[in-house]
Amino acid sequence: MTSTRPRYSRLVAALPAVVPFVPPEALERQIGAELRLRIGANESNFGPSPKAVAAMTAAAARVNWYCDPEGHVLREAIAARHGIRRDNVVLGAGIDDLLGLVVRTVIDPGDAVVMSHGAYPTFAFHVNGFGGKLVTVPYRDDRNDPEALAAAAQRSGARLLYLSNPDNPTGSWLRAAAQTALLAALPEGCLLVLDEAYADFAPADAVPETAAEDPRLIRMRTFSKAHGMAGARIGYAIAPAEMVRSFDKIRHHFGVNRVAQEGALASLGDAEFIASVRREVEAGKRHYERLAAALGLKALPSATNFVAIDCGRAERAKAILAALLEKERVFIRMPGVAPLNRCIRVSVGTEAERRLFGEALERVLADIPA
Amino acid sequence: MTSTRPRYSRLVAALPAVVPFVPPEALERQIGAELRLRIGANESNFGPSPKAVAAMTAAAARVNWYCDPEGHVLREAIAARHGIRRDNVVLGAGIDDLLGLVVRTVIDPGDAVVMSHGAYPTFAFHVNGFGGKLVTVPYRDDRNDPEALAAAAQRSGARLLYLSNPDNPTGSWLRAAAQTALLAALPEGCLLVLDEAYADFAPADAVPETAAEDPRLIRMRTFSKAHGMAGARIGYAIAPAEMVRSFDKIRHHFGVNRVAQEGALASLGDAEFIASVRREVEAGKRHYERLAAALGLKALPSATNFVAIDCGRAERAKAILAALLEKERVFIRMPGVAPLNRCIRVSVGTEAERRLFGEALERVLADIPA
Question: What is the tens place of the pLDDT at every residue in A281-307?
């Protein structure tokens, strides 16, 4: 044993050197130019609420003070909105943070965790990072397959089952009845992690209110999507009060920054702005459907702020993605694994951005065989 | 096994339900009134740099975009400032985040970790949270005792040795020669975690530049103190490039928010502001020394933005702290364990705040026996 290089924990030493996402900034450094369109990370190009901007601006001048680590005021507001108690709400620095927290709280090394194959890479990153054993289930008809997910959880004795609803990267959604059936089919002691990042864009019966004290369920929401605050890093989860208290044993108490807490509170109070974003996103999805159809492609139905566009074959989707970046300086993403990787995934931008995207897509398709 | 209550990992199930700090906001809820003075958390009441505020205000309007998870621009600026390479810099959501990261990266359950008894509670929180075995060493003459710390690391085969320099809660500091001697006395494979949160207030020879590739050392800095950005949540560590790459395996890639990154970059560029804060803090420490002496108390020497004031006995310090809160609505803190708990710890506020503090302290001392 020498001290000529650092030593690592067994878990970390065994992990591969992968990162979940290549960011648009790295792509800009790669192509040596600024992107013309940034519509790949499902950010909201409709921006944050003006009320949230005003609150964040005020908070910036008081940023010498730590945040309230109990997030008292914001949790009260969130609880009121859902008709639950503050004790059932935990804040996090985005859903990414909350996913890490729930994995760490529940999973011992070797425990099984079930998710759809090709679902949110950052959740898989956390499961691997804490030594969980990932069990994946294929998408079926470009949707999560709740019966197969539950069956896999039963077979593996899973402690966690992750479901993004509405789903990323497909845009599909499960209605309340399917969620209730999934909960009922979970094995004993398995927790359903319902990632509702795109809830604000979903039909009401896809994101029903639930009993906050249901020990089988934790639901996660974010201010990164409809609220247009991805860069602020704030989200929350609804969970049994005992679980929220358990998070207190390990969470970063001062980790949800003051600017984000103030901005989120103001944004929660701006229902009109969120409604306007929702209308814009609906119009934008119709726009993308027309664009896709006009170019001989097919947009998958979506309850989110993005659309997966079926390009027929993985090689074609990859070529389109690369050409959009390199020839057009347009940033989009695509699902990483089959069969979804025959699609590209495009976030809904403003009308001007959508038009630019349509023109860029038409140009690159001219050079790429069907 | 039933699903009537959530199940937890072995580590989390075994943890006590403690939180590292009671925040001033919780104290306000407890006393049912607003605090008059908030000088307990070593926040900088001189605020953030106006340049940082301007940058954060601009960032708030673009907060719909995720941050650059590689923190490329800010890491370049930090590297330039220290004369090192970007690959030796990792960003975190404050030093709290970085401490969690290094513990998780290095410690397997049962591994020994050495720190001074009564040093930063959040570091102990992380060690416990990842199953490390804390070995503590008493302060000696109100200072960290590097020889005893190294000896404890040798005896226990520690993987980490934590040292806050300048120190919290004493304000004391170790010079370069003592740090070099401590590094040389570490057991093989033990990493020195040098928490330099208060570096901006320290004499130059207490915070020397070091070889970034030294495998025995990770140094941590924050924008929470002199830069006045505690609520923004941003700090950085300097470590061997291989260790920085290992952090990438587990860190929250998008966790350092955009507003904080932009604010920190601007603040780094405002050396004049930081110099003015340093002058104010120096003047404030002299002010506190005079205040303490006039009341028959003694301020410990400090290389930070706070002063520990020796009140003679733990009971007296506790009584002063309680009376300041309840009668005067003044928030300060005190060390949690003997022998330091005969002190109260007061952050340097503005001149007006210091005068108010002196008056409040004088009033409460009138009712508390020596």
Answer: 999 999 999 999 999 999 999 999 999
Of A241, A270, A299, the residue that ends a domain is A270
> Is B244 in the same domain as B356?
no
Task: Take residue B255 and report the two structure tokens written for it.
Answer: 């966790």
The count of structural domains within chain A is 2
Question: In angstroms, how far is CA A359 from the centroid of its own chain?
Answer: 28
pTM over 0.90: yes
Q: Tens digit of pLDDT for each residue in B266-324?
A: 999 999 999 999 999 999 999 999 999 999 999 999 999 999 999 999 999 999 999 99
* CA dist., res. A230 & res. B63, Å (int): 6
B275-302 as b/e, with b when 16 or more CB fall inside 10 Å? eebbebbeebbebbbebbeeeebebbeb
Q: What is the pLDDT of residue B4?
A: 59
As a whole number of angstroms, the distance between CA A171 and CA A183 comes to 21
The domain containing residue A344 runs over which residues?
11-40+272-365
Task: Say whether the peptide bond before residue A187 is cis (omega within 30 degrees of 0).
Answer: no
Q: What is the ipTM, given to two decimal places? A: 0.97
| DSSP H or E stretch at residue A189 | none
Shared domain check, A237 and A121: yes
Distance between CA atoms of residues B360 and B363, nearest Å:
5
Q: Among residues 288-317 of chain B, which lie with CB inside 8 Å of chain A?
A: none
A80 and A129 belong to one structural domain: yes
Q: What are phi and psi of A153, to 5 degrees?
A: -65, -40
Interface of B with A in 8-47 (CB under 8 A): 8-12, 15-21, 23, 25-26, 29, 38, 41, 43-47
Residues of B in contact with A263 (CB under 8 A): 60, 63
- CA distance linking residue B349 with residue B284, whole number of Å: 7
